[in-house]
Amino acid sequence: MNKMTNDSLGTKWTAKQFLVIAGIWFAFLISFITRLSWSTIMPSAIDSLHFTVQQGNTYLTAFYIGYAITVLPGGMLADKFGYRKLLMAAVLGNFIVMAAMIFMHGYWDGLALRFILGLVSGPDLSACLGIITEWFDGKKRATATGIFNTCTSFGLTVINIYAPTVLVHYGWRAAFGVTAMFPLAALIFCYFALKGNPPFPQQFGIKEANGNVATESVWSRLGGAISNRSVWMLAITGLFATGAKWGVTNWANLFMVKNLHFSLITAGTAMSIYGITSVISMVVAGWISDHSKWSRHTWAAIFMAIFTPTIIGFALVPKGNLGLLYFWTGAMGVGAFMFSTITNNLSVEVAPADQRGTVSGFINVFNQSGSFLAPILLGALLAGTGSYVTSFLVISVFPLIAVVALMFVRESDADKGAKKVVVNDEEADTVAKGEL
C-alpha cells in the first residue's frame, strides 16, 4: 500500500485530497453558474433580441430538458470511460456553449445552445461523486461530499455578484463573456488538480474466479443498477425529497411577498439565511456520518425527517412576525439540504464499484424529475385551493414518504455478488496480457 493510501485511511486529509475537492467543487460550481446565468441576464437580453417573456422562459426549460436527457447516459459513460474524462468533457462543453451564446442573434440559435448546455452538463454530478469515491475512503467520504455540495448554494450568489454590474456597464453579451471565463478557468484548474493516481481507483472490469477479466457493457451496468433494491429506494427518496426541497425553495420568495406581505428586501434577507444554514448543515451532516457508528441511511432518514416540521413551521409563520420568519426560514434551510449530503453519498456507496456513475445517474433522473414536478404541483395546488399554506402543508408530506423509502436502503447491497472481484483499468490490461 503506497503512502497516499496510508494517508487516505488516516484521520487527516492530504494536500492532494484538498486539491481534488477544490477541483470538483469548482467544476460543479461553474455548472450552476452557467445554468443560472440566463435567469439573471434574461431581462436585458430579451429586450435587445425582441423576445417575449414566454420565449425567454423557454430557455430555462430547454436547459433542463437537455440535462434530464443526459443525466443517466452521462453516468453510464463515466463508468465506461472514466470519471475525470467525463467531468473534463462537461466543463469543456460548458465553456464552448457559453462562448457561443455571446454571438447569438435570434431565438432559435439561443434555444438550441441552451438545450446543448443541458446535454453537456448531464454527466457532471455522477462524475464528481465518482471522483470522491476514488480519493476518499468511507470515513472521509461523507464529509468530502458535504463540502462538495456547498457549491450548489454558492452558485446563485456568484452569478448575482458580477452579472448585474456587467450588464449595466457593458451589456448582456459581455455578461455571457465573463460567464464563459468561469468554465475556462475551471478546465485549466481541474486538469492539474485531478491529475495523479487515486488511492481507490475507478473500477472498469470484473475479474472472475478463473482469472479472466470481463468488461461489462453500459447496458449490463444499467441492468445491474436497476435490479438493486437500494437504488430504487434512493430513486424514490430523490423524487419526493429533492422535489420538496426545490419546490419550497422556488416558492419561498413568492410566499413571503404575496401571502405574508413582507418586502422583497426582507424576503431576500430570509433566503440569505436559508442559504447560509443550508451550507453549514451539509458540511455538518457529512462530518456526523463519517464519525458515527450508525449507518448512513439511518442518518439520512433522521435529517430528512427534520424537513417536514420546518416546512410546516414556515407555512404557519404569522404575518408581520419577522423573528419567526427568519427562524423558520433558517430551519427550513437545514431541513431542505442537510440530508442531501448523505443521499448523494449513498448513491455511489450502494452501487457496485464498476457501476457508480450509472447508479448515481439513474438516481439523479428521479431527482431532476422531482425538481421539475414539485413546483408544478405547488402551482396546481394553489390554483385549486387558493391557499399558499395548504399547498405547503401538502408538500410537507413528501419528505416523510422519502423517510419510509430510506428505511429499505442497505449499504451492503453494493456487496452482492462479492465473489466477483472488480479491477481497475490497469489491472484489466495486465490480466488481458496474461500477466496476472
TrEMBL record:
Under InterPro entries, the record lists: MFS (IPR011701), MFS_dom (IPR020846), MFS_trans_sf (IPR036259), OPA_Antiporter (IPR051337), Sugar_P_transporter (IPR000849)
Q: Any idea where the Major facilitator superfamily (MFS) profile domain is?
A: 15-414
Transmembrane in keyword set: yes
Localization in the cell: Cell membrane
A Pfam family this chain is assigned to: MFS_1
The question of whether Transport is a record keyword is answered with yes
| Spans traversing the lipid bilayer | 18-38, 58-79, 86-105, 111-132, 144-163, 175-194, 231-248, 260-287, 299-317, 323-342, 362-382, 388-409
Gene Ontology biological-process entries: phosphate ion transmembrane transport
Query: According to Swiss-Prot or TrEMBL, what is its membrane topology?
Result: Multi-pass membrane protein
> What's the protein called, per UniProt?
Major facilitator superfamily protein
